[in-house]
Prior knowledge:
Blueprint: E1 2-6, E2 17-22, H1 30-38, H2 42-48, E3 59-62, E4 72-77, H3 86-100, E5 107-111, H4 122-136, E6 154-158, H5 164-189, H6 197-210, E7 214-218, H7 220-225, H8 229-235, E8 243-250, E9 258-269, H9 278-281, H10 289-303, E10 309-319, E11 331-333, E12 339-341, H11 349-362, E13 367-372, H12 376-382, E14 387-391, H13 394-407, E15 411-413, H14 419-422, E16 431-432, H15 440-449, E17 457-461, E18 467-468, E19 478-479, H16 484-494
Parallel strand pairs: 1-6, 2-4, 2-5, 5-6, 9-10, 9-13, 12-16, 13-17, 14-15
Antiparallel strand pairs: 3-4, 7-8, 8-10, 11-12, 14-17, 18-19
Helix pairs in contact: 3-4, 4-5, 5-10, 8-11, 10-16, 11-15, 13-16
Zinc ion (ZN) binds near residues 266, 269, 287 and 348.
Amino acid sequence: MKIRVLDASPVQVVADWLVVTVFEKAPLPAPTQLVDASLGGTIAALIARGDITGKLAESIELLQVTGIAATRVCVVGLGEAATLTKSRLDRALMTVARKLSTRAVASVAVALPAAPLAGLDEESVASVVANAMTVGCVGQGLYKAEPDRFRFDEVSLLVSPAAVADAERGVQTGLIVGESTNLTRELVNRHPGELYPETFAQRAVAEAQRLGLACEVLDEDRILAEKMGSLHGVARGSVRPPRVVLLRYEGAGAGQPWLGLVGKGVTFDSGGLSLKPSDSMKTMKCDMAGAATALGAVLAIARLKLKVNVLMAAGLVENMPSGSAFMLGEILTARNGMTIEIMNTDAEGRLVLADVLSYVVDQGVDKLIDLATLTGACVVALGEEVTGVFPNHSEWGDQLLAAAREAGEDAWPMPMFDSFSEQLKCDTADMKNIGTRWGGAITAAKFLEKFVGGKPWVHLDIAGPAFMESSKAHRDGGATGAMVRTLVEVAKRFA
Length: 495
Ligand code: BES
Ligand code: MN
Ligand code: ZN
């Protein structure tokens, strides 16, 4: 998809769709007013009789118009001007992109009110538009014979001559981050018979090669040689061998600090011998979303040429029950020498991350973030749409939260009291892999904390927001690509 910035008039732009906006209970924004005049007052008339209200993300389609160069017009509501935020603007534009992409159309032109809009400058507005147009026209119907969504060939963002340069920069950012979000979504949406540790690793290598990045894949022998006994224990039940993917982007140069991005990549989580019931198992292809998010983010960071050094690491395994599966009561030895008594094979994500976190710390990263669809308990605590934030270092945690706010993604801090690690105490080994029923998301985070060697670290539990069972007007069901934008924002601030 191509996105360009034009300083053309919305009346004269040639496009299959022209998108204009209206606010609730307010006069028409200037570009909409121009279009309305050429349409003979149709928009004003629809507002007067209540067919257009301007409520957030309401979109009214005028399929047959004369008097302007575009073929059709979509009037999108932005709600009340005073309540418009970046994420509300995103929601409105995502809704439009999703609606317009249900049929194949070549070109879409977007005419928004001039900045500041939602308190954003031209560059930020342009990046929201480009991101929404890129993400909104891609769905989860990867395996359908008849596609249910069509990418636009070309999107034009109409701005004033003075805003062209800023808008072009924003479009570039929004497009790159949107394409990375789509990559993350695609990987998560691929079914687990096709996407497993080896094929995930192959895809990571291919994507890294396109950007000239160094990508190393640890195979099973290397994993054992690196003493990753905890990760390997989980992988043992599957016929598909594990992989660890390491992708380096050195944008800041030698001697500068490194940011570690670590992802849980359980390509299918059956629960292992502690087998999940079907209802909980049916969406468990999504259990590699942490790895896919870390990969999407590092690729965007590299394409944006941010001045930051990033080491991305993904622990890729399949958690299966079999004659060779790890057992309850079995004691695994992690890379850092700690022993773990297995009390539930379905608490596997922390076992995978433990070894990858230690490895990344040994590689000399200065600060880390891990992402994981780690616990159902986090979804109970925060709901389906909010990422749980678990820091061992309050400043680093605050930076993550500030980045999420800037990116317009919902994330919320969780407590990390030491009383939760007491639940992990064990008579036979250094720790066990589960605690009690209560506060399970925090116990899991306290488990991970033992493997970061005291480095500033934030754990992000994305079990809720990574994957949605149903579609909404503003986003497709399935994988969401949640937190890709936040990670890019963190990297910008790290630089
Ligand atoms: N992958 C699951 C967590 C999950 C649940 C992700 C729902 C996405 C949606 C994880 O491996 C798991 O099974 N966690 C257990 C932990 C328990 C055994 C301590 C859980 O949440 O029940
Ligand atoms: Mn599990
Ligand atoms: Zn899992």
